[in-house]
Specification:
Helix Hairpins, Heat Shock Protein 90, 2 domains
């Protein structure tokens, strides 16, 4: 057996052992993330309860304070008027004032303890939430390593000559996959999964109420139907975000128009779509990339721009697709450190990278107080089989 075959066999063995070790660590990190998520939910519920108690206690303290003041006034009146009030009356007035004073002090102590407990819970939630975020991020990074070790990127390597570009593209693809999986997992956990748990509880409640209070059971059944409708709506939204089916059925422009209609209805921001030259037969990979870039641009406008009007222009020639998204918002400083380092939180770097993966170009122009303009150019001709 040749030395190269021996080396290859040894390398495969090392990779297999590495995969087993990483998989074990990934599972442990995932369990930490799940425990942190459950703890965050528990703390949030306790915070809700304690905030309610704090509000009630503050009201009780205020009421006891008023009662104590009234009792002191009465004690003064009784103590001064010996002709009208007896020693027994004075004693009773004193005891009443003293009892209210003690109640007031105890209630104030309870209020203080509750506020201290609330502060501790808020700090604990902040720490636990930070652990959750770090664990989720670490799971995603470990997933990238796992996919690289398990995966076969030969098909991509054949189409890209430069080694650094191959690795960069592979990393971006896998990171995007992991981020999408994490996002979908979080949306399902926070949305439909919680709703389904409520459905089970409501169904059990209705079952018990049927033999006790038929009218109340009808009310609970109505609430149950509302939960199911909301859950169905959430699931449809998740499916739509994964890949709008209308892209395959109707194409890019109708899908964008439908998204804009929903966006206007939900946000109140006016969006105008202008299609200058529509031609058929755009590659599906280009369609989904353009849709995602427009979707991200509109999300940024909603979160950051404070704009009231948006214009989206789409122009197409036989070899290029041009898209412009322009808003009249507050804009941002393109020379700022956060923007240059990709830490702005606007997702603009990711949009640029998505365009570059298709040999396209995305230009961003923004000025403080003068809105933002995003110009996308995508070649429609395939080069080197990059998105066949």
């Amino acid at each position: 057996m040749s030395k190269s075959k021996l080396d290859l066999k040894k390398m495969n063995e090392i990779i297999e052992k590495t995969i087993v070790t990483i998989e074990s660590g990934r599972q442990e990190i995932f369990e930490i993330a799940e425990d942190a998520r459950k703890e965050c939910e528990r703390i949030k519920q306790e915070l809700t309860s304690i905030n309610h108690k704090v509000s009630l206690t503050i009201l009780e303290v205020d009421e006891l304070k008023r009662e104590e003041k009234r009792a002191k006034i009465r004690l003064m009146m009784v103590s001064k008027d010996f002709n009208q009030y007896s020693e027994e009356d004075i004693r009773l007035a004193y005891e009443e004032a003293n009892n209210i004073r003690i109640k007031h002090l105890l209630k104030k102590r309870e209020e203080k303890d509750l506020i201290v407990r609330r502060t501790d819970l808020e700090l604990n939630f902040k720490r636990t939430n930070e652990i959750l975020k770090r664990a989720e991020k670490l799971v995603a990074h470990v997933g990238v390593a796992m996919d690289f070790l398990k995966g076969n990127l030969n098909d991509i390597y054949e189409t890209i000559g430069d080694m650094s570009k191959k690795q960069l593209l592979g990393i971006k693809i896998i990171e995007a996959q992991e981020e999408e999986r994490m996002r979908v997992s979080r949306e399902i956990h926070d949305g439909p999964a919680q709703s389904m748990a409520n459905v089970v509880l409501k169904a059990e409640l209705c079952e018990k109420l049927l033999s006790i209070d038929i009218n109340q059971s009808r009310t609970e059944l109505q609430k149950l139907k509302d939960i199911v409708r909301t859950s169905l709506k959430d699931i449809r939204k998740i499916i739509y975000d994964l890949r709008p089916m209308s892209l395959d059925d109707l194409g890019l422009v109708p899908t964008i128009q439908r998204y804009i209609d929903r966006y206007i209805e939900e946000t109140g921001i006016n969006v105008e779509l202008m299609v200058l030259n529509k031609q058929p037969d755009i590659d599906s990979v280009i369609e989904i990339a353009c849709f995602r870039i427009i979707q991200e641009a509109l999300n940024n406008i909603l979160k950051h721009s404070k704009a009231q009007d948006v214009l989206i222009k789409i122009d197409q020639t036989h070899d290029k697709l041009y898209i412009v998204v322009k808003d009249n918002g507050i804009g941002f400083d393109m020379n700022g450190r956060k923007f240059k380092s990709g830490e702005s939180g606007f997702g603009l770097i990711g949009m640029k990278e998505r365009a570059e993966l298709l040999n396209g170009k995305l230009d961003i122009v923004s000025t403080l107080g003068a809105g933002t303009k995003i110009a996308l150019t995508i070649p429609l001709e395939r080069k080197d089989g990059l998105y066949e």
